[in-house]
Specification:
Layout (H helix, E strand, L loop, with lengths): L8 E6 L5 E6 L4 E5 L4 E5 L7 E6 L5 E6 L4 E5 L5 E5 L6 E6 L5 E6 L3 E6 L7 E4 L9 E3 L5 E4 L2 E4 L5 E2 L1 E2 L2 E2 L1
Antiparallel strand pairs: 1-2, 2-3, 3-4, 5-6, 6-7, 7-8, 9-10, 10-11, 11-12, 13-14, 14-15, 15-16, 17-18
Length: 171
């Protein structure tokens, strides 16, 4: 059954336990749906622009959202309260992803930048440009936490350096 809302859907994410589905929208809404009851439970609308990216931490305790307003908001997934607003990007954000241990996450933006954020640290750990002037619409972290993949390449999670692949493997 469709979960209906009158704005473009940009991103969706299930909670790790499958109980909740979060959808993000062009009007800035972040909707939390109860999957079992097929009901809207909350609207976490705090961004001032379209919200293009959402991800849950692996333990389901936190959410990260990225927006056209150039901010990433970290949320307490249990009560819907903002934990932090991060603004290191200079253009709209297209992707967010948590590491498998939940201690850090990355965000990517329209200008081709990837930024690593460590939990409990105000400043980013590093920033890398994936492809100058080419938008990054997605970002993902390998299960072992060593690599970050985006629309234009694979990077070291440690320092953001470009990882190359050839017949000898990754290096």
């Amino acid at each position: 059954a469709p979960l209906e809302y009158d704005s473009a859907v940009w991103s969706v994410a299930f909670s790790p336990d499958g109980r909740w589905l979060v959808s993000t929208h062009g009007d800035g809404s972040i909707l939390v749906w109860d999957v079992v009851n097929r009901e809207l439970e909350a609207n976490l609308r705090q961004h001032s622009g379209a919200v293009r990216a959402v991800t849950f931490s692996p333990d389901g305790e936190r959410l990260a959202t990225g927006s056209d307003d150039q901010s990433v908001i970290l949320w307490d997934a249990k009560n819907g309260q903002k934990q932090a607003v991060l603004t290191p990007h200079q253009t709209r954000i297209g992707g967010v992803a948590f590491s498998s241990d939940g201690t850090w996450f990355v965000s990517s933006d329209q200008a081709g930048n990837i930024i690593r954020h460590d939990s409990g640290r105000a400043e980013p750990r590093w920033s890398a440009t994936g492809s100058k002037d080419a938008p990054l619409y997605c970002v993902s972290i390998s299960p072992n936490g060593r690599f970050i993949a985006s629309s234009f390449g694979v990077y070291s999670a440690d320092d953001g350096s470009t990882i190359l692949f050839d017949r000898n493997g990754w290096h």
